[in-house]
Amino acid sequence: MPSSILHPAVRDAARKLGILQATEAQSAAFGPIIQGKNVLLIAPTGMGKTEAAMLPIFSRLMEEKRRIGVIYVTPLRALNRDMLKRLKEFGKELDIRISVRHGDTTEKERRMHVKAPPEIMITTPETLQIMLVGSKLRELLRNVRYVIVDEIHELADNERGAQLSVVLERLVEMAGEFQRIGLSATVGDPEEVGKFLVGKDGDVEIVDVSRIRKMEMDVEMPVPDEEDEKIAAMLSSEKEWVSCLRRAREIVEKSMASLLFVNTRETGEKLALQYSMLGYEDMELHHGSLSRDVRVEVENRFKSGELKALICTSSLELGIDVGRVDRTIQFNSPRSVSRMVQRVGRSGHSMEKMPKGTVIAVNEDEFAEGAVIARKAMNGEVERKIVRKSPLSVLANQITSIVVERRDVDIDEVYSIIKRAHPFMGLDRDEFDSVVNQLVEIRQIWRDGNRLSIGRNSRKYFYDNISMIADERSYWVIDINTRKRVAKLDERFVATHIEPFSVFIVRGKAWRVVDMDEDGILAEPVGDLGSIPSWSGEDLPVSFEIAMEVGRLRRTRDFSGYPVNEADAKRYIAWLEKAEKEVGIVATDRRIVIEEGDTVVMNATFGTNVNLTLSHILSSLLSARYGAGINTSVDPYRIMFQASFNLGGREIEETLRSIRPETLEAMLRIVLKSSEVFKWRFLYAAKKFGIIEKGADMRSVNMDRIIEICRGSPVFEEAMRMTLWKDMDIENTRKVLEMIRSGEIEVVRAKLSDIGRMGLRQKGGAVLPSRPSMEILKTVKKRIENTEIRLLCLNCGNMWRGTVSEVHDNMRCNRCGATMIAMIRPYQKEFQEILGKKELKPEELKRMRWLVKSAEIIMHYGHDGAMVLSGRGIGPDTANRILSRLHRNEFELLRDVLEAEINYAKTKRFWD
Description:
The chain is of the alpha/beta class.
């Protein structure tokens, strides 16, 4: 290590551990950190940010060792584990003790932290808050001189970060001011994040080397081939989805080690199951709801080379060391630039290697969005991190936490401490007092004049609300064979899908519920299809800026400067041209197209939250106008309307034009009060205020009543602010409305086009959706038609082979000409043996009745009968029930076959 400003022992330790030369990030950061400055270091993954922060601090510790002199805060416990391993090597060389403390830390380890405190403590924001209230740890924390916040971009713009910012100011009250260092790979607004790090009175030096490292990116939209169609039939999926599955696998096979990123755990589960069904055992799943043991196991198998790829979510997005990854794959658009940069940066995890990433898009929307995000990422155009001002849920949490910490404290001191944190610099005293009064009213704290003290519920509230992450009860899935924890399922999924013997999919495998008790859900691995668990709040919205650039691409059709191949760009343009031929016009950044059909689709390239904002306003105004409810759904490029009456595009256009930009927020505050999104935000706020207890049985809680009681209170206001901030986009919606009024954005009407229909189509996956799309039904038809069967004449016993496609109406035996022909599967050879017997045993009588019913179905229904009988788990009785229904076409019949197959998978225990 060439830097002479480091302590000689630190330089020697670095050399021993293979660090022979400083990276640009390290060279730039060593100086200001050694000088004691607060530093925000922004540098790509692989530039050694941890060492950039810690080597100067190690140098300072060599001169003055302090028990818990350094706090290293990381947002994920998995990062703690990785950080500990990396830093302990230095600690061993320098005789500096390093420990980790978080929710999984054992009681024995916690006691050791007090008896033999380390110099460096690695922890999470939540555990740091707990440390502040422990009497013995509080004394040790007075020694803190350095605090490092890793992956600070993950915290700066949310309630969890706001909580940490106050906790740091509370730590200052104990230890005096300390040096603060923030580390991040991607920051769109360094000045704002820097202020978040240091608070009201701090100065920060921004060391930004984020643009030094280039990235290689490309965006693809694979073309399905004949093999994809065959696989799609086998997986009951769509050919476009399977072509992406195949292309991702091709990249994996050409790479040494790959991370296959998905946006949600549901998608990860689908892909893991499909790859498993295709026989690829060198790909495993990794996400946050899997147990720690499972995650560590797959990480170790990946590092050892046993696995070629990990299918992962944001659980591997941050700086966990997973070995030498030479390629990252993003399945569909990553939704944001910062996410793209972070994920692609996981490959080429050293400065001499260039990060490489490929986005594989399943359709044209995903392709254009991925192209825009990739271009922005390569040019360093990362989204700004805007710190939400004065979140009242965090304020309530921190007022109570300070009272628990101090037991008795002056109210003015509490206000002063909180005001020093950047998110609360503008906190109005009247608003602060209203939150205090709310907490006193529910007896969470006591107030006597200007003194605040512990209330009846203070300590319980404190430990129930350590984290600002939304509370939703979860349940462990436990493998009944090994008694190991497999994964967690959310309360909503358990309530709606889990019952004894039901089948679900997790960790890429199907599991059947055996029993449920206080420990969790006991399950056994099975081979059936089941339901994919849903985890709330996962997928990111697409920003206004990204969606508008997609709209601009639609208008200009100029892909120069975008990392896409010419063939895919031409296919995208051909898709636009097809829509133009259909309806004469397409939606762009300067045009809204309202397409009329059974569902009215308003094509608008304004992003998720602007479209959600418009949908709430429009549906409310239209419902009031016509006195009937209107259902809406949105994606970044469409708003879809369904009504019980004949709603047309003209009515939507007139209503859209009538909205005055200046009244938008006032209208939303009225409209949102009865919305599901507001109720969800209110539930969060009510729990964080302590009005609703953590773990409360929501089946017995009258939410509407509680909301009405709290109207006008701080908790109601907080829920409304959260809804407006997190789910709506008032600023850009106003901009859109003003552009419509000025004519910069035109509004036109047309009939339904392929672009509009894309929003209505369901995308294929591993498990069939509630109403399978036409593409899925086509692939299932191929699968059924190619099913191998045996045809058995009940008159002469003749049996011959064939496929379902060969069965036709008016079938006759090719030997005797009889019409009673039963259809059986190749493995049902015992059926042929009973023909010709004079006396049949009871079991044989059952088989004979089965054969007669099968033959009657083939005689009466011909090919349709054979298709139904070929369904998995469908016998003659079930087939008769299906065939007796009215089906307008073959695909309606296939839908019923699929429903019966899934029902068999769920109830298979009764037949086994």
